[in-house]
Amino acid sequence: MADLPRGVLYPEQHAPIVTVATYPASTDLAACVEYYWHVRWEVDEPYETKVLSHPNIHLVFEEPVPLVYGVDRSVFTRRLTGTGHVLGVRFLPGGFHPLWPGPAADLTDRRVPASDLLGPAVDELNARVLAAPEDTSVVEEFLRPRLAAPLPPGAADAAEIVRRITADPALVRVDRLAADLGVSMRTLQRLFADHVGVSPKWVLRRARLHEAAARAHAGAPVDWAALASDLGYSDQAHLTRDFTAAVGVPPGRYARA
């Protein structure tokens, strides 16, 4: 099975019909753009791909028009039919601000026509991008002048805090995180509303669920009680409840599937 991005659910079903490639951003855009991703699929029957979303805003070039996707707090689901492909830009937390100055929370759980936020030029670019998705220079020519403005205060801090959380799924308490950063919980919550779009608690919890899903994908038997303890849950029941609420099935059943 080919490696798939963290968060893709049911990878054994996903890998034979969907290919994913990622491309780095140029150095001068790396403060805003984490990377570009290209997804291509070919299915005989309609298939629903499901992803435990990350705390990032995406600009996606697709048919019929490009869309901006805010952070999806549920499981991101897309129905695939026939053959097709899309190219996405994954922005760092806070990195979308030069393109649209509103709070990231205003985009959460939304899919917005990109032209509503970025103007009609992004629609005109769509066909060119989809004709040669491996050539990300086309997208970067569009983004470069629009991302030239300095990031607003707090944007880079938000990106670093999210990186810290996702790198350490054992970091489980917002009050501990705020204390480590030397800020109040209210300050941290405002920072995340402005630049991330979801709360620090959501990011902490999602990092733990990503780790639980990754353990299930590994193929080896999982000691769910021990994993719950490693991830800071008070007991296995709390991990099971969180996982079931997000994914729709308990972790043990998901691993068997």
What's a concise summary of this model?
The chain is an alpha+beta fold. It has helices at 11-14, 114-118, 121-131, 137-146, 155-167, 174-181, 185-195, 200-217, 224-230, 236-247, 251-256, and strands at 18-23, 33-42, 47-52, 58-61, 67-69, 75-80, 83-91, 111-113.
What do these coordinates show?
This protein is of the alpha+beta class. It has two domains: 11-147, no CATH class; 155-255, Homeodomain-like (Arc Repressor Mutant, subunit A). 41% of the residues lie in helices and 18% in strands. It is built from eleven helices and eight strands. It has helices at 11-14, 114-118, 121-131, 137-146, 155-167, 174-181, 185-195, 200-217, 224-230, 236-247, 251-256, and strands at 18-23, 33-42, 47-52, 58-61, 67-69, 75-80, 83-91, 111-113. The chain has a six-stranded antiparallel sheet with strand order 1-2-7-4-5-8. It has a two-stranded antiparallel sheet with strand order 3-6. Helix 5 runs parallel beside helix 8 and helix 9 (224-230) packs across helix 10. Keywords: DNA-binding, Transcription, Transcription regulation. One of its GO terms (molecular function) is DNA-binding transcription factor activity. Residues 156-257 form the HTH araC/xylS-type domain.
